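So, can you check what follows?
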Amino acid sequence: MNNKKKNEGQTDFSYYGLYLLDYLRTNKFEQADDTAFIRERADRAAETYERARLEGYPSEGAQELAMDTLLRGLRYSKYAILREVVENEFADEVPEKKREAFIRKLLPPVGNVFSAYDLSDDNFALSPEYDLLYTELTGAVVLYIGEYGV
Protein backbone atom coordinates (compact mmCIF):
# COMPACT_ATOMS: atom_id res chain seq x y z
CA MET A 1 0.00 0.00 0.00
CA ASN A 2 2.82 2.39 0.83
CA ASN A 3 4.41 1.84 -2.58
CA LYS A 4 1.09 2.51 -4.25
CA LYS A 5 0.86 5.92 -2.61
CA LYS A 6 4.52 6.68 -3.40
CA ASN A 7 3.99 5.95 -7.11
CA GLU A 8 0.58 7.58 -7.36
CA GLY A 9 0.34 9.95 -10.34
CA GLN A 10 3.51 8.60 -11.91
CA THR A 11 2.03 5.83 -14.00
CA ASP A 12 1.77 8.15 -16.97
CA PHE A 13 5.51 8.84 -17.02
CA SER A 14 7.41 7.33 -19.92
CA TYR A 15 10.37 5.01 -19.46
CA TYR A 16 12.66 8.03 -19.44
CA GLY A 17 10.42 9.89 -17.01
CA LEU A 18 10.37 6.99 -14.56
CA TYR A 19 14.12 6.52 -14.89
CA LEU A 20 14.74 10.21 -14.22
CA LEU A 21 12.31 10.29 -11.31
CA ASP A 22 14.08 7.37 -9.67
CA TYR A 23 17.49 8.92 -10.32
CA LEU A 24 16.43 12.28 -8.86
CA ARG A 25 14.91 10.68 -5.78
CA THR A 26 17.83 8.33 -5.17
CA ASN A 27 20.32 11.18 -5.35
CA LYS A 28 18.09 13.67 -3.51
CA PHE A 29 17.95 16.29 -6.27
CA GLU A 30 15.57 19.20 -5.65
CA GLN A 31 13.88 18.53 -9.01
CA ALA A 32 12.50 15.17 -7.81
CA ASP A 33 9.12 16.80 -7.16
CA ASP A 34 9.08 18.88 -10.35
CA THR A 35 6.78 16.97 -12.71
CA ALA A 36 7.14 19.52 -15.51
CA PHE A 37 10.94 19.29 -15.34
CA ILE A 38 10.81 15.49 -15.47
CA ARG A 39 8.36 15.44 -18.39
CA GLU A 40 10.36 17.97 -20.39
CA ARG A 41 13.62 16.04 -19.88
CA ALA A 42 11.94 12.73 -20.67
CA ASP A 43 10.39 14.14 -23.85
CA ARG A 44 13.76 15.48 -24.99
CA ALA A 45 15.41 12.13 -24.29
CA ALA A 46 12.73 10.28 -26.28
CA GLU A 47 13.12 12.73 -29.16
CA THR A 48 16.89 12.26 -29.06
CA TYR A 49 16.46 8.49 -29.22
CA GLU A 50 14.01 8.69 -32.11
CA ARG A 51 16.16 11.15 -34.08
CA ALA A 52 19.28 9.01 -33.56
CA ARG A 53 17.52 5.86 -34.75
CA LEU A 54 16.27 7.71 -37.85
CA GLU A 55 19.86 8.81 -38.50
CA GLY A 56 20.95 5.17 -38.45
CA TYR A 57 22.35 4.75 -34.94
CA PRO A 58 21.99 1.27 -33.47
CA SER A 59 19.57 1.09 -30.55
CA GLU A 60 22.41 0.99 -28.00
CA GLY A 61 23.98 4.14 -29.44
CA ALA A 62 20.64 5.92 -29.60
CA GLN A 63 19.95 4.93 -26.00
CA GLU A 64 23.32 6.30 -24.89
CA LEU A 65 22.56 9.64 -26.56
CA ALA A 66 19.09 9.72 -25.02
CA MET A 67 20.45 9.04 -21.52
CA ASP A 68 23.04 11.77 -21.97
CA THR A 69 20.23 14.17 -22.85
CA LEU A 70 18.15 12.99 -19.90
CA LEU A 71 20.90 13.39 -17.29
CA ARG A 72 22.87 16.34 -18.69
CA GLY A 73 23.74 18.66 -15.83
CA LEU A 74 22.47 16.19 -13.24
CA ARG A 75 25.53 14.01 -12.73
CA TYR A 76 26.38 15.25 -9.25
CA SER A 77 24.01 15.93 -6.41
CA LYS A 78 25.04 17.53 -3.15
CA TYR A 79 23.66 14.51 -1.35
CA ALA A 80 25.61 11.98 -3.46
CA ILE A 81 28.88 13.86 -3.06
CA LEU A 82 28.41 14.21 0.70
CA ARG A 83 27.48 10.53 0.92
CA GLU A 84 30.71 9.65 -0.89
CA VAL A 85 32.74 11.73 1.57
CA VAL A 86 31.06 10.19 4.60
CA GLU A 87 31.36 6.63 3.26
CA ASN A 88 35.00 7.02 2.23
CA GLU A 89 36.38 9.17 5.02
CA PHE A 90 34.15 8.49 8.04
CA ALA A 91 33.22 4.81 7.78
CA ASP A 92 34.64 4.16 11.26
CA GLU A 93 32.98 7.18 12.88
CA VAL A 94 29.54 6.85 11.27
CA PRO A 95 28.07 3.34 11.47
CA GLU A 96 26.47 2.14 8.25
CA LYS A 97 22.99 1.92 9.76
CA LYS A 98 23.19 5.58 10.84
CA ARG A 99 24.70 7.02 7.64
CA GLU A 100 21.52 7.88 5.79
CA ALA A 101 20.09 9.85 8.71
CA PHE A 102 23.47 11.45 9.42
CA ILE A 103 23.92 12.60 5.81
CA ARG A 104 20.40 14.07 5.70
CA LYS A 105 21.02 15.88 8.99
CA LEU A 106 24.45 17.08 7.84
CA LEU A 107 23.48 18.39 4.41
CA PRO A 108 21.83 21.68 5.47
CA PRO A 109 24.69 22.82 7.75
CA VAL A 110 27.37 22.09 5.14
CA GLY A 111 25.28 23.11 2.14
CA ASN A 112 27.03 26.46 1.76
CA VAL A 113 30.29 24.64 0.94
CA PHE A 114 28.78 23.69 -2.43
CA SER A 115 27.96 27.27 -3.45
CA ALA A 116 31.40 27.94 -4.98
CA TYR A 117 31.24 24.91 -7.29
CA ASP A 118 29.40 24.15 -10.53
CA LEU A 119 27.83 20.75 -9.94
CA SER A 120 26.01 20.95 -13.28
CA ASP A 121 29.29 20.43 -15.14
CA ASP A 122 29.13 16.83 -16.32
CA ASN A 123 32.93 16.60 -16.04
CA PHE A 124 33.08 18.08 -12.55
CA ALA A 125 34.47 14.90 -10.94
CA LEU A 126 37.45 15.06 -13.29
CA SER A 127 38.33 18.62 -12.35
CA PRO A 128 40.64 19.96 -9.64
CA GLU A 129 37.58 21.74 -8.20
CA TYR A 130 36.08 18.38 -7.29
CA ASP A 131 39.13 17.58 -5.18
CA LEU A 132 38.83 20.96 -3.48
CA LEU A 133 35.14 20.40 -2.75
CA TYR A 134 35.85 16.91 -1.42
CA THR A 135 38.55 18.32 0.89
CA GLU A 136 36.31 21.16 2.09
CA LEU A 137 33.47 18.75 2.79
CA THR A 138 35.80 16.43 4.68
CA GLY A 139 36.84 19.36 6.87
CA ALA A 140 33.24 20.43 7.39
CA VAL A 141 32.28 16.90 8.47
CA VAL A 142 35.22 16.77 10.90
CA LEU A 143 34.08 20.06 12.44
CA TYR A 144 30.45 18.94 12.60
CA ILE A 145 31.27 15.62 14.26
CA GLY A 146 33.61 17.42 16.68
CA GLU A 147 30.85 19.79 17.74
CA TYR A 148 27.68 17.69 17.48
CA GLY A 149 28.81 14.09 17.22
CA VAL A 150 27.15 11.54 15.00
Q: What stands out?
A: Confidence is low (pLDDT under 50) at residues 1-9. The first helix runs from residue 2 to 6. The two ends are 33 Å apart (CA to CA). The chain has seven helices and no strands.
